[in-house]
Amino acid sequence: MKSKKEGNQYDKIFKENLESVTLVLIEKVLHIQVASYERLPQELQRTVERRPDQLLKITDKQGYTFLLQLEFQLVDEATMVYRMLEYRGMLSRKYELPVKQYVIFLSDQQPKMQTRIEEPDLSYAFRLVQFSTIDYKLFLSSEKGDEVVFAILGKFGDTHPEEAVALIVERINQTSTSKSELQRHLQQLRILANLRKLTPFIEIMIDSITPYIKKDDDFLFREGKQEGKLEGKREAILKLLKDGVLTTPQLASYFDVTEEFVEELRKTHTK
């Protein structure tokens, strides 16, 4: 079971990145075609207070207006269905609009939580989405680092985890607009990787790549320009070839060289 401190770390990441990731989930995962939306106050108070993770008033492209509630859940909570039912009643009473509710489950364990209540005079259900079943490329293709970090929680399919991690770190580097933003995204990636037991891969990639691929700050790229252009890149590529993590096309793309150049280094320097 995750500690409260760990849970708070994950909550913090979602709150920091929520503006970006919410619309991706709504349109590409939940397949809701949004024409317009409005963020609503999250506090709901009667005799008890409830605070949904995300609450939006949405009008879709068919003109249907409804409330959308998203809950990001790390723990497989047995009583989740009753908590969601409480939310449903309070939301319906306050806004007098139809309500759609989704729980986004972050762990890669198969959730066992009850999602439906069927009793005399009561029929209720919410929708459960397991993040690890979402194609990681959905987030990998984003132009925003705030979204790309969530690729680590997605489904890798036929892609080996080590390769997927390399692609995610590469994309975070490409989409981060400053050194401080890059550092923030990599730290978020480290924390989220714990949920998928991918921390060793993350550490290898961060340690091996980030000193080399951020061209504006990179010593080897500056040296390469000043002292023979390819020499700095050559040394960096050799180190990464020895680590054996990245493919030839990935290295060629990182360092703006030909695949033939990378293959020649592989043949002559890595036996």
Describe it for me?
It comes from Xanthocytophaga flava. This is Rpn family recombination-promoting nuclease/putative transposase. It contains 11 helices and 9 strands. The protein is α/β, with parallel strands linked by helices. It has 2 domains: 32-133, no CATH class; 157-269, no CATH class. The strands form 3 sheets. Strands 1-4-5-6-9 form a 5-stranded mixed beta sheet, sandwiched between helices. Strands 2-3 form a two-stranded antiparallel sheet. Strands 7-8 form a two-stranded antiparallel ribbon. α2 links the parallel β5 and β6 (99-105). The protein is elongated. The two termini are 44 Å apart. The model is unreliable at 212-229 (pLDDT under 50).
- As laid out across the biggest beta sheet, the strand order is 1-4-5-6-9
Strand content: 15-25%
Determine the structural class based on helices, strands and strand pairing.
alpha/beta
Assign an overall shape.
Answer: elongated
Mean pLDDT value? 81
Total strand segments: 9
Number of helices: 11
Q: Which sheet architecture does the biggest sheet show?
A: 5 strands, mixed
| Residue runs with pLDDT of under 50 for 5 or more positions | 212-229
What kind of oligomer do you see? Answer: single chain
Helix content: 40-55%
Q: How many structural domains can be distinguished in the coordinates?
A: 2
Protein name: Rpn family recombination-promoting nuclease/putative transposase
